Structures are given as structure tokens and as C-alpha cells.
Amino acid sequence: MKRETRLQLVTKLAGGLALAMALSMATIAAASAADVDEGSTTLYTLSNSATGNDVLAVTERHGQASVVVSYPTGQKGTGAGLGSQGAIALVEGGSRLIAVNAGSNSVSAFAIGDMGRLKLINSAPSGGLNPISVTARERLVYVLNAGDNTVSGLRLGEDGLSPIAGSTTALSAGAKAPVQVSFTPDGESLIVAEKVSNTIDVLAVGDDGGLGSPHTTISTGATPFGFDFDSGGHLVISDAVGGAPGASALTSYRVHESGALSPISFVPDLQTAACWVVVDRRGGHAFTTNTGSGTVSSYDIARAGALTLHASVAAVTGGHPIDEALGTNGRELFVLDAGGRILSSAVLASGDLGPVSVATTGLPSSVTGLAANFDRE
């Protein structure tokens, strides 16, 4: 047999390696394609118009141009952004949508049909003044009324929303400028962040829908704003620090049965005015929009709730991002900005974000709130 030269061997090995890499990349691409569910993502936001509030639905389908459809609530907004997280909430399973009407002191319930289409079921009083945030779990709905610092409950049935008698509960005595209300993952408590008083309230949810007295914790970081929860039920909340340049952070807390919160980690993102937060529970990553910087920061979350800054600038949105939502099982991040745009970026398994693209433009300047619903075909 003819003896191969070293150059021939190297050439052969290189060719084999290139073929193996090509096959591997093809396998990964095929797996990635198979992993992407066929269907469409519908994004919901509120016009918050003072003359008539509408839920604006933006449906993206297999890369086709997005279309905006308006669904009137029959109520009124305020005509300006609410500065809150959770103005729109999806009920688990994606069958219902709840929206606040801050100008009418009410909330509206919609049924979600095929392709994300909405049908108004009814509207009901919010139990207070200036409702800005809402949370839903099964048949229980609670709304945060910023105008009188209260939280009030409603039941969601086939005929829509109905107030729970005696459920309206005042926040802690020193609470000022509440921003968001949300169930804890176990459904046993509500959490409310209050940005001006630098406090976080935890209220127990009773079997009858009533609420316990708030247990108040002083925030580790200044100006606590939006929040979400990781897969272990730890609270992950932004600290806008009064909008001080480069001073924003994320803080994680352990939520105790007593309603007490104990800080786990406080990690700056080196950006300005971190406000809205979403957590990819499957991948263990958190994303916060920095309104003053026009950026998104990303964090890694350990099993015990400890945060590590993944990227101070994971994406550049420009403008002033004012809300965000995850779609397609956490594989897409959508960002709403004050210029009437919704931007999108792929969420990679590493926690990195892909290139930013524009999902839609031309939304009203009063637009507020963002939720994403994925409809499989």
C-alpha cells in the first residue's frame, strides 16, 4: 500500500472534520426546527385612550406581516402610560384575558378564541380608584388600585367578572406609588411593589377570596418596580434607583409562608431605570428593560435564587422601553416602547438575545401593558 504523506493525512482529517461539523450543524438545525411549534403569537397591549380603551391585538404568523386589531372594552383609559407592570393579564391556559380601565375604575374580561381573537364578556368595578395592574389565577382575579392604595378581588365565571364582597384591602400605611400586583406561584399570596415608599407588601389569599393584612418589607434596592418569579418561586424584582444613571439593579428574595421576604442577592446591571422584569423559568434567565438606557439586561438565576449578571446590554432597543413579555415557551422576548413600537428578539438557550427586529409600529403614545399568547395550530 502506498504510504500517505503527512500533508495527505492532514488534508483527509480536515475533510472528515468538516463533514462531521456539517452533519452536526444540520442535525442541530433540524432539531431546532422541530423544536419550534407551528402556530402564531398574539401580543396584547392597551390603547389606554381617555375616549375609549381598547385591547390592541398584534398577531405574528410564520413571519408574515403583523396586523393590529382593536377590541373595545367599552370603558375608558387615562390617555397616558400607567407606569405599571401587569395592565393586562392572561388566565392560565390562555382562554381569558383581563384588562384594566384606569379611567373608568373598572376591569374587563375577554374570551380568547382561535388565532388570538377576542370577545368581550363583561366589565366590572375594580373596587377602588385608578386600577393599573391585574393578576389572575384560575377563577380568582385581583386588581391593584393606585389611586387609593388598595387591592380588590373578583371572581371570573362563565358570565365574566364579579366583585368579591369584602375583599378590598388597603396596602400598608406607608405604601406610596404601587406599581404591580401578582400572585405568588403557589397562589397562596399576593405581592405588591411600591416604588416611592421603597416597600414590598405580601398579602395572604384566603379560601373565600379575602385578603390578609399586608406584611411589609423594606426593599433592598431603591425604587422597586416590576417583578416576576423563578422556577423555585423566588421573587425577582427590579430596582430603578430613582432613575440614577448607571445605578439600576435586580434583587432576588425568598418568600416565606409568614409573608416575610429575605434578600438573596442584589446585582447591579450598570444601566439606568431598570423597570420591567420577566423570567424565563425553563431556562433560568431574567430580563429587565432599562427605560433610561434604551436597553435590555439579562441575568442568570441559580437554583437557590441567586442572580448573576449575564449581560449588562443584552439588547439595544433605543427609545424608552416600557414593558416586556415572553412568548413561544420563553423562546422570544417582546418589548413595548413609548414610541408605539413592539420589538422582538429570540431568546437563546444560553440566555443571550438574538438581533432585535420590529414586530409592529404606529401604536398610540398612550399604549400600556404587554402580554403574549401562543396559539398552536
How would you characterize this protein structure?
By secondary structure, the protein is mainly beta. It has a single domain, classed as YVTN repeat-like/Quinoprotein amine dehydrogenase (Methylamine Dehydrogenase, Chain H, 7 Propeller), CATH 2.130.10. Helices cover 8% and strands 49% of the residues. It is built from 1 helix and 29 strands. The strands form 7 sheets. Strands 8, 9, 10, 11 and 12 form a 5-stranded antiparallel beta sheet that branches. It has a 4-stranded antiparallel beta sheet with strand order 3-2-1-29, with no helix packed on it. The chain has a 4-stranded antiparallel beta sheet with strand order 4-5-6-7, with no helix packed on it. It is globular and about 45 Å long. It starts with 5 loop residues before the first helix and ends with a strand. The N terminus is likely disordered.
What is the count of helical runs? 1
Q: What is the percent of helical residues? A: under 10%
Write down how many β-strands occur, each being a DSSP E stretch of 2 or more residues.
29
Uncertain residue ranges = 1-37
Q: Quick one: CATH superfamily?
A: YVTN repeat-like/Quinoprotein amine dehydrogenase
**CATH class, please?**
Mainly Beta
Structural class: mainly beta
Sketch the major β-sheet: 5 strands, antiparallel
Strand content: over 45%
Radius of gyration, CA atoms, in whole angstroms: 23 Å
- Whole-number tally of structural domains: 1
CATH architecture: 7 Propeller
